[in-house]
Protein backbone atom coordinates (compact mmCIF):
# COMPACT_ATOMS: atom_id res chain seq x y z
CA UNK A 1 0.00 0.00 0.00
CA UNK A 2 1.32 3.44 -0.88
CA UNK A 3 1.53 5.93 1.97
CA UNK A 4 2.19 9.67 1.73
CA UNK A 5 3.10 12.28 4.30
CA UNK A 6 -0.18 13.74 5.60
CA UNK A 7 -2.23 10.53 5.18
CA UNK A 8 -4.45 9.56 8.09
CA UNK A 9 -3.65 5.97 9.18
CA UNK A 10 -4.89 3.36 11.64
CA UNK A 11 -2.50 1.11 13.57
CA UNK A 12 -3.48 -2.56 13.12
CA UNK A 13 -2.42 -3.88 16.55
CA UNK A 14 -3.57 -0.94 18.61
CA UNK A 15 -6.64 1.21 19.05
CA UNK A 16 -5.40 4.54 17.75
CA UNK A 17 -4.66 6.45 14.61
CA UNK A 18 -2.46 9.27 13.48
CA UNK A 19 -1.13 11.36 10.62
CA UNK A 20 2.01 10.33 8.70
CA UNK A 21 4.79 12.84 9.42
CA UNK A 22 7.78 11.05 7.84
CA UNK A 23 8.52 8.01 5.65
CA UNK A 24 12.01 6.47 5.56
CA UNK A 25 12.40 3.13 3.75
CA UNK A 26 9.82 0.81 5.39
CA UNK A 27 9.57 2.87 8.62
CA UNK A 28 6.69 5.31 8.86
CA UNK A 29 6.57 7.92 11.62
CA UNK A 30 3.07 8.97 12.65
CA UNK A 31 1.86 11.65 15.00
CA UNK A 32 -0.97 10.51 17.27
CA UNK A 33 -3.89 12.68 18.29
CA UNK A 34 -2.06 13.23 21.60
CA UNK A 35 0.99 14.61 19.78
CA UNK A 36 3.30 11.58 20.20
CA UNK A 37 5.58 10.53 17.35
CA UNK A 38 5.65 6.75 16.86
CA UNK A 39 7.45 4.59 14.30
CA UNK A 40 5.76 1.65 12.54
CA UNK A 41 6.50 -0.60 9.63
CA UNK A 42 4.23 -0.09 6.64
CA UNK A 43 2.57 -3.51 7.11
CA UNK A 44 1.36 -2.40 10.57
CA UNK A 45 -0.65 0.55 9.20
CA UNK A 46 -3.79 1.03 7.12
CA UNK A 47 -4.91 4.25 5.42
CA UNK A 48 -7.89 5.70 7.24
CA UNK A 49 -10.96 6.21 5.09
CA UNK A 50 -14.56 7.05 5.86
CA UNK A 51 -16.33 4.41 7.98
CA UNK A 52 -18.28 2.83 5.12
CA UNK A 53 -15.28 2.60 2.78
CA UNK A 54 -13.13 1.34 5.67
CA UNK A 55 -15.43 -1.64 6.25
CA UNK A 56 -15.39 -2.61 2.58
CA UNK A 57 -11.61 -2.15 2.45
CA UNK A 58 -11.19 -4.70 5.22
CA UNK A 59 -13.10 -7.29 3.23
CA UNK A 60 -11.51 -6.59 -0.14
CA UNK A 61 -7.89 -5.83 0.68
CA UNK A 62 -6.15 -9.22 0.77
CA UNK A 63 -3.00 -7.96 2.51
CA UNK A 64 -5.10 -6.71 5.44
CA UNK A 65 -7.05 -9.97 5.56
CA UNK A 66 -3.76 -11.87 5.51
CA UNK A 67 -2.39 -9.82 8.39
CA UNK A 68 -5.59 -10.28 10.38
CA UNK A 69 -5.66 -14.04 9.83
CA UNK A 70 -1.98 -14.30 10.79
CA UNK A 71 -2.71 -12.41 14.00
CA UNK A 72 -5.66 -14.67 14.82
CA UNK A 73 -3.69 -17.86 14.23
CA UNK A 74 -0.74 -16.65 16.29
CA UNK A 75 -3.09 -15.86 19.18
CA UNK A 76 -4.43 -19.44 19.31
CA UNK A 77 -2.85 -21.14 22.26
CA UNK A 78 -0.60 -24.11 21.84
CA UNK A 79 -1.49 -26.98 24.16
CA UNK A 80 0.40 -26.39 27.38
CA UNK A 81 1.16 -28.72 30.24
CA UNK A 82 -0.09 -27.65 33.59
CA UNK A 83 2.62 -26.81 36.13
CA UNK A 84 1.69 -29.83 38.27
CA UNK A 85 1.91 -32.19 35.26
CA UNK A 86 5.31 -30.81 34.28
CA UNK A 87 6.86 -32.31 37.40
CA UNK A 88 4.99 -35.61 37.20
CA UNK A 89 7.18 -38.65 36.66
CA UNK A 90 7.16 -39.84 33.07
CA UNK A 91 7.46 -43.53 33.94
CA UNK A 92 5.85 -45.79 36.54
CA UNK A 93 6.95 -49.32 37.35
CA UNK A 94 4.58 -51.44 39.43
CA UNK A 95 6.65 -54.03 41.27
CA UNK A 96 3.73 -55.87 42.88
CA UNK A 97 4.38 -59.53 42.16
CA UNK A 98 0.93 -60.05 40.59
CA UNK A 99 1.91 -57.40 37.99
CA UNK A 100 5.10 -59.25 37.08
CA UNK A 101 3.94 -62.88 36.81
CA UNK A 102 0.61 -64.57 36.10
CA UNK A 103 0.85 -66.62 39.27
CA UNK A 104 3.33 -66.49 42.13
CA UNK A 105 2.25 -69.97 43.18
CA UNK A 106 5.32 -72.06 43.96
CA UNK A 107 7.65 -69.05 44.19
CA UNK A 108 9.56 -68.47 47.40
CA UNK A 109 9.78 -65.02 48.95
CA UNK A 110 13.41 -64.91 47.79
CA UNK A 111 12.38 -65.70 44.19
CA UNK A 112 9.72 -62.98 44.25
CA UNK A 113 12.10 -60.41 45.72
CA UNK A 114 14.81 -61.29 43.19
CA UNK A 115 12.35 -60.93 40.30
CA UNK A 116 11.15 -57.57 41.64
CA UNK A 117 14.70 -56.25 42.08
CA UNK A 118 15.79 -57.50 38.64
CA UNK A 119 12.76 -55.76 37.10
CA UNK A 120 13.56 -52.54 38.98
CA UNK A 121 17.21 -52.62 37.87
CA UNK A 122 16.28 -53.35 34.24
CA UNK A 123 13.68 -50.54 34.19
CA UNK A 124 16.08 -48.10 35.86
CA UNK A 125 18.78 -48.82 33.29
CA UNK A 126 16.20 -48.59 30.49
CA UNK A 127 15.22 -45.13 31.77
CA UNK A 128 18.86 -44.08 31.90
CA UNK A 129 19.43 -45.26 28.33
CA UNK A 130 16.29 -43.43 27.12
CA UNK A 131 17.18 -40.31 29.13
CA UNK A 132 13.99 -40.45 31.19
CA UNK A 133 14.53 -38.29 34.26
CA UNK A 134 11.90 -39.49 36.71
CA UNK A 135 10.55 -42.93 37.53
CA UNK A 136 8.22 -44.07 40.26
CA UNK A 137 8.68 -47.59 41.54
CA UNK A 138 5.46 -48.80 43.17
CA UNK A 139 6.45 -51.37 45.77
CA UNK A 140 3.57 -51.31 48.20
CA UNK A 141 3.79 -51.00 51.95
CA UNK A 142 3.99 -54.60 53.28
CA UNK A 143 6.85 -55.30 55.68
CA UNK A 144 9.17 -52.88 53.88
CA UNK A 145 11.68 -55.48 52.66
CA UNK A 146 11.35 -54.56 48.97
CA UNK A 147 11.60 -50.83 49.77
CA UNK A 148 14.83 -51.34 51.71
CA UNK A 149 16.30 -53.51 48.94
CA UNK A 150 15.32 -50.90 46.32
CA UNK A 151 17.04 -48.17 48.31
CA UNK A 152 20.16 -50.35 48.50
CA UNK A 153 19.97 -50.85 44.70
CA UNK A 154 19.49 -47.12 43.96
CA UNK A 155 22.33 -46.14 46.30
CA UNK A 156 24.76 -48.07 44.06
CA UNK A 157 24.21 -45.50 41.29
CA UNK A 158 26.01 -42.17 41.63
CA UNK A 159 23.70 -40.43 39.13
CA UNK A 160 20.37 -40.94 40.94
CA UNK A 161 18.64 -39.61 43.97
CA UNK A 162 15.54 -41.24 45.40
CA UNK A 163 12.83 -40.26 47.81
CA UNK A 164 9.25 -41.13 48.76
CA UNK A 165 6.90 -40.53 45.85
CA UNK A 166 3.90 -38.19 45.97
CA UNK A 167 1.90 -39.30 48.99
CA UNK A 168 -1.45 -38.06 47.61
CA UNK A 169 -1.05 -40.18 44.49
CA UNK A 170 0.79 -43.27 45.77
CA UNK A 171 0.46 -43.33 49.55
CA UNK A 172 3.45 -44.76 51.38
CA UNK A 173 4.08 -47.57 48.91
CA UNK A 174 6.18 -45.89 46.21
CA UNK A 175 9.67 -44.47 45.71
CA UNK A 176 10.50 -41.83 43.11
CA UNK A 177 13.89 -41.87 41.44
CA UNK A 178 15.42 -38.81 39.79
CA UNK A 179 18.17 -39.55 37.25
CA UNK A 180 20.86 -36.93 36.65
CA UNK A 181 21.42 -37.01 32.90
CA UNK A 182 24.93 -35.64 32.62
CA UNK A 183 26.65 -38.19 34.89
CA UNK A 184 27.85 -41.60 33.72
CA UNK A 185 26.50 -44.59 35.70
CA UNK A 186 28.92 -46.72 37.78
Would you mind describing this structure in some detail?
It is a single chain. By secondary structure, the protein is an alpha+beta fold. The chain is 37% helix and 25% strand. The protein has a 5-stranded antiparallel sheet with strand order 4-3-2-1-5, with no helix packed on it. A 4-stranded mixed sheet has the order 6-7-9-8, with helices on one face. A hairpin with a 4-residue loop joins strand 3 and strand 4 (37-41). Helix 5 packs parallel to helix 6. The radius of gyration is 32 Å and the shape is rod-shaped.
**Proportion of helical residues:** 25-40%
Q: Strand content of the residues, in percent?
A: 15-25%
List the strand order in the largest sheet.
4-3-2-1-5
Termini gap: 67 Å
* Class from secondary-structure proportions: alpha+beta
Instruction: Report the order of strands and helices.
Output: EEEEEHHHEHHEHEHE
Question: Which geometry do the CA atoms define?
Answer: rod-shaped
Largest sheet, in brief, is: 5 strands, antiparallel
Treating each run of at least 4 consecutive H or I residues as one helix, how many helices?
7
Integer-rounded radius of gyration: 32 Å
The count of strands amounts to: 9
Mean pLDDT across residues: 81
Low-confidence stretches: none
